[in-house]
Amino acid sequence: MDPILAADLERFPELLADARDRAVRALAGLATRPVGVPPTMPEPAALPVEGVGAEGAAARFHQRWEPGFSGSAGPRYLGFVTGGTTPAALVGDWLTGTYDQNAVSAQDSSAAELERETVRWLGELFGLGGHHRGAFVSGATMSNFTGLAIAREWAGERIGVSPAESGAGALGDVPVLSGSPHSTIYKALSMLGLGRGAVRLVPTLPDREAVDVDRLEAALAGLDGRPAIVVANAGTVNSVDFDDLRAIAELRERFPFWLHVDGAFGAFAALSPAHAHLVEGIDQADSVCVDLHKWLNVPYDSAVQFSTRPDLQVRIFQNSAAYLGLPGENPDFVHLTPESSRRLRALPAWFALTAYGSAGHREIVERTVHLARFLGERVAELPGLRMLAPVRFNVVCFTLEDDPTEAAVAALAHALAETGELFLTPTVYKGVPALRAAFSNWRTTEQDVERVVEAIARVRA
């Protein structure tokens, strides 16, 4: 054994204790760490020939790279839709690395059964029925990709071909109808060979991002019975608008289409009695995307996909090798998702659900929705700013009152980030450049919102 590696093995408990102490200091410093940090590049370093051991590597990391890491785990990081990591989820994540289980196969471990239990719990959490089966993937992009891959195979089944066997070209044109599709839908369609151009935008309701169901019905009628894919939204990016999922599902009585629901973070409305009506009908979807490193507040690289056709899923993703075995009635995850090896992503989610239950996560959802509305009220009072959409759920979308050009809005975002007090991401809503503040971090409080408002006011002064 390499002598440096052998020395680290001898000191393993001490090294882990040091990592634990460094993590404690990092988390304790979130209140003062800049929320956003301009990227910097240290002097390039050569590939080490002789290593310095784990302790030396930690020292170099904390000297060269750690100062450039943002406080994205903290309560005032409101860019994208980013949760933090709850204590239980972090414990689960550390143990994920410790046990290093590859859950794609059930041959050597109970890890796959833990994932199945976690998926079942999540299905209950989001109001999905027993007819939905699921698996963990890396994020919303791969969840949407997996759902649309099954939709592609379903479309082939309707006309007697299998794209998984013959290629996407055997399908011809498959229309993908949606009112406000997320960018990952286009990315997934590109990877699947259906093409970004397959998207046919359906008009939305006036001053909304929700699809006009009557216009969707007319678009489906115009297809003359051709199979299609409908991508519905349970929470749009800019204003967290929700399509009428039940009304869309009812259209399947007359038109053949696969219903994919992108509920990356909006599916969490199911947890709150005051908002559950927003996702009524999600149980009628053929496939559903939910991103867990958002509102479930588990570490990055965690999402779940659900579908009602695991048979088609196996047809697409089966990995036929003698050492893996054939997919049976309860196929291993290696036959259900793109990856043939992956970490046990389910463990942090299992820890979070076990530690805090549905009630604890409902509190996180309801509190952060309240905080979004609180910020919306305060922003509306600030001179020189205007709201672009009502705060329907957990996102505040606003812009400059006068001349909101892309450059001016980007300059405001940069100035806010330079304060170190908050981080927001730019967007475009109904053609208007804007900023959006997304709430999903379990740490965020009213005091944090006050700090955000004060920082915005100082920059605008």
From TrEMBL:
The modification N6-(pyridoxal phosphate)lysine is found at K294. Keywords: Decarboxylase, Lyase, Pyridoxal phosphate. It is an enzyme of class 4 (lyase). The keyword Electron transport does not apply. The keyword Lyase applies. Its cofactor is pyridoxal 5'-phosphate. It holds the Pfam family Pyridoxal_deC. InterPro entries: Aromatic_deC, PyrdxlP-dep_de-COase, PyrdxlP-dep_Trfase, PyrdxlP-dep_Trfase_major, PyrdxlP-dep_Trfase_small. It comes from the Bacteria. GO terms for molecular function: aromatic-L-amino-acid decarboxylase activity; pyridoxal phosphate binding. Its EC number is 4.1.1.-. GO terms for biological process: amino acid metabolic process; carboxylic acid metabolic process. Signal peptide: none annotated. Belongs to the group II decarboxylase family. This is Amino acid decarboxylase,pyridoxal-dependent protein. It comes from Saccharopolyspora erythraea (strain ATCC 11635 / DSM 40517 / JCM 4748 / NBRC 13426 / NCIMB 8594 / NRRL 2338).
